[in-house]
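User: Um, any thoughts?
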Amino acid sequence: MAWTDLLTALGLLLVIEGLLPFLSPHRFRQAMLNFAAVDNRWMRGLGLACMLIGLLILNAVK
């Protein structure tokens, strides 16, 4: 993997992450407040699920 691939992925991540706060800052703020109230075990499970889905996508693309 070249550094350009890593920087491309990082740039795409930042664009995607920035869409919701740009398009609807009020809804984004409400979602973050709701997310902050979530139980740690549930949040850890969500993080694990996101990592596994990400790995599956990377494996499928590779």
The first helix runs from residue 3 to 23. The mean pLDDT is 92. The CA atoms of residues 4 and 10 lie 10 Å apart.
